[in-house]
Amino acid sequence: MSELKYAYWVPNVSGGLVVSKLPQETDWSFEANKRYVLAAEDAGFDFALLQTRFFASYGAEYQLEAATLAAALASVTKKINLISAVHPGLWHPGVYAKMMATLDHISNGRAAVNVVSGWFKGEFTGYGEPWLEHDERYRRSEEFIRVLRELWTEEEATFKGDFYRINGAPLKPKPVQKPTPPIFQGGNSRAAKEMAARVSDWYFMNGNTTDGFKKQIEEVKELAAKEGRTLQYAVNGFVIVRDTEEEAVSVLRDIVSHADVEAVKGFGEAVKQAGASSKGKEGMWSNSTFEDLVQYNDGFKTGLIGTAEQVADRIIELKQLGADLILTGFLHYEKDIKDFGEKVIPLVKQKEVQLQKEVISV
Ligand SMILES: Cc1cc2nc3c(=O)[nH]c(=O)nc-3n(C[C@H](O)[C@H](O)[C@H](O)COP(=O)(O)O)c2cc1C
Are 46 and 6 in contact (CB under 8 A)? Predict the structure, then answer.
């Protein structure tokens, strides 16, 4: 079994990872993010995920641009991989392929991309760009990924699509990673899953229940098998580790009872509209409750809330379901990242060794 990997959401958007007025020791600034990435690298995290957000919205007033910040974080770190989220439609894939090749050189092979197809109509109309219908956004994202791959691997790339045209374009230097930097992608809709099966390396999931994850992973695996491909799977979970389960649950209750109700409801309406416009109306967040949306990627649902022992057990369960990577978010970034590295990551490893011994001795 391959080793489980860990990622954390970079809080490059103000307001933290929960839309709550409960005080959070989490800051969006560059200086703070420099401290968090160094703490995460030290703690044993493999990836940092930088969000893309351009406009103030739903409790997030300030945002640092993902790729620019990734380049700065790359220059102060040595091991951690930096995943920059990108919106096709706001970037040309040729320009972005060049940026990521540059980041791969700055970081010596630690660049990765998360291609997001978007829910935030206001960002597109605000920048004067057309807002495409749901499945059309995925068609464009798929072309975007195909162009990235062409430019990263071909001497001279040519691509004739409905959204992008590339005419004998060279890209030098090629990225350090071969064949290409990893491409991540999320989304619950059928269009998202089909696109993942065809062109992505990693499939990101919002927080979910055991059954929810199982269903999603099975569906994408089946679609990928039809394409003769295999993917890796990443699950999101908000982490609250405390000495007792009661303490951890009481922190969750505090986060939810202090929720910024107006912001959570506004976000809920925006994302549900985006998901409802998918063909099967099964887009991400379509079943999310008010409480789920307080962590805007349904992170509470995953159940990484309790003692270190309980959280480690749940992580092992997620791995057994097929997760290759756990994407984490925290309330008090610096302290919680350190705690996770000290208490949870080694405990998971210890438990896995124990489990393997038990399997061998049976
Ligand atoms: C792990 C993860 C990270 C995401 N990051 C961003 C982001 O940084 N910016 C953004 O606008 N959307 C982000 N999204 C949302 C996607 O753009 C998309 O709206 C969402 O996956 C819904 O897709 P669906 O309608 O196919 O279910 C993210 C989704 C996931 C699962």
Answer: yes
Ligand 1: nearest atom to the Cα of 192 = 26
Rounded Cα–Cα distance for residues 193 and 290 (Å)? 25
Q: Ligand 1 centroid to 119 CA: how many Å?
A: 7
Tokens encoding 289: 């409750």
Instruction: Give this prediction's pTM.
Output: 0.95
Atom of ligand 1 nearest to the CA of 53: 9
Which atom of ligand 1 is closest in space to residue 284's alpha carbon? Answer: 27
Residues paired with 235 in a beta bridge: 205, 326
Ligand 1 first shell, C-beta below 6 A = 51-53, 85, 114, 116-120, 186-189, 192, 204, 206, 236, 274-275, 278, 283-284, 297
The CATH architecture to which 5-361 belongs is Alpha-Beta Barrel (3.20)
pLDDT tens by residue, 126-144: 999 999 999 999 999 999 9
Q: Are 263 and 58 in contact (CB under 8 A)?
A: yes
Q: Does an H or E element contain 191, and which?
A: helix 190-199
| Pairwise CA distance, residues 300 & 207, whole Å | 7
State pLDDT tens for residues 265-315.
Answer: 887 877 776 666 667 666 766 778 888 888 888 999 999 999 999 999 999
Phi, psi angles (nearest 5°) of residue 251: -65, -45
Quick one: how far is CA 72 from the chain centroid?
Answer: 19
Q: Which amino acid is at 330?
A: F
CA 184/CA 27 separation, integer angstroms: 25
